[in-house]
Predict the 3D structure of the following.
Amino acid sequence: MAIGGVAMIQDVLLDLVESDNPTRNYDVTSKAVEDGADISDHMKERPATLSISGYLLNPDAWARMARIHKYQQTRQLITYTNRVIHSNMAITSINTRHSSTEANGLYFTIQLKHVRRAKPAMAQITNVPKATATKTAPRQNSGTQQARQTPKQANNKASDIRLASKAGMFFGAKVGGLVGG
């Protein structure tokens, strides 16, 4: 029999619950000060946990444990009912023991953790100024601009001069006019 009557995980009856141990923890921040003890200025609640241990008995014990495993595998939030009702719990671990003392059943230890979910909220934004176009100076005529050579164009011109110089030496002609002198 369960501690407080009928014990259930979601819709699965637990034949015998030896113990259910809830734990509530808080994180407390501490800051060191030069003289004296640390100062604690903030406290944050951690999710509650619950450890359940007991027995599933009778020939359908394995089918009931399979349903509990399915809740864990599908990450379904469950409700554990015994003396106190614990809602929005996730099954974080399941341990089972199979021995000759549990002929038609099994011994289990199940760990649960409370899950808090954030709820999305919508906010109405008011008094937002309308976007205005950015003003820039008008385009001005800058006159005729001299074309600039890219490094590749300058390299090609030097290559052409070297080629003409070699051709002139081959044919005996002077190519000083191409080089500028």
Summary: The radius of gyration is 41 Å. Residues 152-181 form one domain. The mean pLDDT is 82. The beta strands are 7-9, 12-14, 16-23, 26-31, 39-45, 49-56, 78-81, 85-97, 106-114.
